[in-house]
Amino acid sequence: MSEPKFTPRVFSGIQPSGGLTLGNYLGAIKRFVSMQDENFETVYCMVDLHAITVWQDPEDLAHNTRELAAGFIASGISPEKSILINQSQVPEHAQLAWIFNCVARMGWMGRMTQFKDKAGKNTENVSLGLFAYPALMAADILIYHATHVPVGEDQKQHLELTRDIAAKFNHDYGVDFFPITEPVIEGAATRVMSLRDGSKKMSKSDPSDASRINMTDDADAIAKKIRKAKTDPDALPSEVEGLNERPEARNLVNIYAALNEQSVEDVLREVGGQQFGTFKPLLAELAVSKLAPISTEMARLMAQPDEIDKILAKGAAQAREITAPILKKTYEIVGMVS
Ligand code: TYM
What we know:
By secondary structure, the protein is mostly helical. The chain has helices at about 20-35, 50, 60-75, 90-100, 105-110, 115-120, 130-140, 155-175, 220-230, 245-260, 265-270, 275-300, 305-335; strands at about 10-15, 40-45, 80-85, 150, 180-185. The strands form two sheets. It has a three-stranded parallel sheet. Strands 4-5 form a two-stranded parallel sheet. The mean pLDDT is about 95. Ligand 1 binds near residues 28, 50, 191, 192 and 202.
């Protein structure tokens, strides 16, 4: 069997299940933007079908999908360079997901830490969709034959499962049809932590708004949250090793490095020895200078929801030129009569 050549193609997605956070921006979107100018076709997605694995009010879902699209564009995703879609407008995602539900094993899904975290002790009452979530995610990626997937650290296990599903499909049907996708988990901010607790991930679902920076926060809110962020009493170290056992200090330095596109080593060379009383205003100023223009642009775009809908409709049409032939071929491989 000859090796198929896969076009270098990036796919990634974000759930429209609430506002965007600094974690989404630094862990994912910033990399989405830079990959547009590398040698890739890029496809970015609002995963509305994933969002409804937990209850979403319909009006909120529609609002959050458009706001997420605005966030992507305001951050620098260009609808000219990238295909920008919401998942439900490209039906091949869900169609391939069904095939993958029949490839993935119950045991694989049961080991997913994100499922265990979200379901907690309540496994009898969560939706079946929440359990099947990673098979839909594999379908999102593989319906494009995507070769690279930029994500934050928390999605690593789901990407390993995506590779397992591709390998099992290829093995079971004796083909070399789906690529074994490479995760792209890079930079200083692959895991941005809560501003209130350095052991917890920054998350849109944390009940405390002070724990996160929202991409819609204004300059005052951003500065206030950074000023109040939990820290320890020591000065900043000059070497990376000095951040060991100091999760809150590490988090703020990582955020600074990622926002300023510097390495952590370089940041510590500049700020090592400073007290938080000096460092926090610097970080707040940097964060406001990088984030405030994005939230302003998001607000401008949100005033024209029809324009956003047009961009998503165009994206869906472009996407289906890629996904329809791949689904057709998958059905043929599986033996579906057409
Ligand atoms: P979601 O919506 O939870 O998060 C979107 C992206 O943001 C990253 N991220 C973070 N990165 C660093 N620090 C944080 N605190 C932080 N919080 C979130 C996530 O790692 C992710 O890259 N299952 C996915 C959505 C998805 C997807 C896909 C991703 C569906 N299909 C296909 C890639 C490819 C999710 O829930 O991401």
